[in-house]
């Protein structure tokens, strides 16, 4: 069960955001940032929750997932050598990219490439998308690669605070308690 959550969160580690796409935005996207918050995953009838600390840089990502009580569940690292998933009492798993690793571990690929963009309320500029904006120009919904991303709340700095990423039988809820641009 914890490995499933770790692998789902692997999707958060693999995007690469360095050039902003041409979509109206309120907050300026940062190439390097740290997001800390909470995550919930609903996969069919399974439901998991925990805390997340995601450090994103153009060339690397590191995601640390802990239980609600603060125990380490998984550490995911993306760098030039590929993606590594470390979980307690299990050998590390490696793959050239996060999509391959999630496909291997789960039997299907997760929306890895888009998540680093989506948590910033932006579509992956390399793929087609549909976006719905509110009267202030903030994105309230993105549709990309068969996924629907709903932005439920924004923080005072105009960064997404609460979002839901959903697709047939899988829902990822993320609450960003803090954003820090580097």
Polypeptide structure, described:
With 182 residues, the chain is mainly beta. The protein has one domain: outer membrane lipoprotein receptor (LolB), chain A (Clam), CATH 2.50.20. It has three helices and eleven strands; from the N terminus they run αββββββααβββββ. Strand 10 (160-167) and strand 11 (170-181) form a beta hairpin. The chain is globular, with a radius of gyration of 15 Å. It starts with a helix and ends with a strand.
Keywords:
eleven-stranded antiparallel β-sheet, 182 residues, mainly beta, 3 helices, single chain, globular, 45% strand, 14% helix, outer membrane lipoprotein receptor (LolB), chain A
Overview in brief:
With 182 residues, the chain is mainly beta. Helix 1 packs antiparallel against helix 2.
CATH architecture: Clam
How many alpha or pi helices? 3
Order of helices and strands: HEEEEEEHHEEEEE
What form results from the Cα inertia axes? Answer: globular
Structural class: mainly beta
Strand tally is 11
CATH H-tier superfamily: Lipoprotein localisation LolA/LolB/LppX
The spatial strand order of the largest sheet comes to 6-5-4-3-2-1-11-10-9-8-7
Question: How far apart are the termini?
Answer: 33 Å
Give the overall average pLDDT.
Answer: 82
The CATH topology comes to: outer membrane lipoprotein receptor (LolB), chain A
Rg from C-alpha positions? 15 Å
Our estimate of the beta-strand percent is: over 45%
CATH class: Mainly Beta
Largest sheet: 11 strands, antiparallel
Helix content: 10-25%
Q: Into how many domains do the coordinates divide?
A: 1
Ranges where pLDDT stays below 50 over 5 or more residues in a row are 6-26
């Amino acid at each position: 069960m914890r490995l499933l959550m770790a692998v789902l969160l692997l999707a958060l580690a693999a995007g690469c955001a360095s050039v902003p796409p041409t979509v109206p935005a309120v907050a300026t996207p940062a190439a390097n940032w740290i997001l800390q918050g909470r995550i919930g995953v609903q996969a069919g009838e399974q439901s998991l929750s925990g805390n997340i600390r995601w450090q994103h840089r153009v060339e690397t990502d590191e995601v640390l997932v802990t239980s609600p009580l603060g125990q380490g569940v998984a550490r995911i690292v993306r760098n030039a050598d590929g993606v590594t998933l470390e979980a307690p009492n299990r050998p590390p798993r490696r793959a050239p990219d996060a999509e391959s690793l999630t496909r291997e571990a789960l039997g299907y690929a997760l929306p890895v490439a888009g998540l680093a963009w989506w948590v910033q309320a932006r579509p992956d500029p390399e793929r087609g998308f549909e976006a719905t904006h509110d009267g202030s120009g903030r994105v309230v919904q993105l549709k990309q690669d068969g996924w629907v991303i709903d932005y439920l709340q924004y923080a005072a700095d105009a960064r997404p605070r609460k979002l839901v990423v959903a697709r047939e039988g899988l829902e990822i809820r993320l609450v960003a308690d803090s954003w820090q641009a580097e």
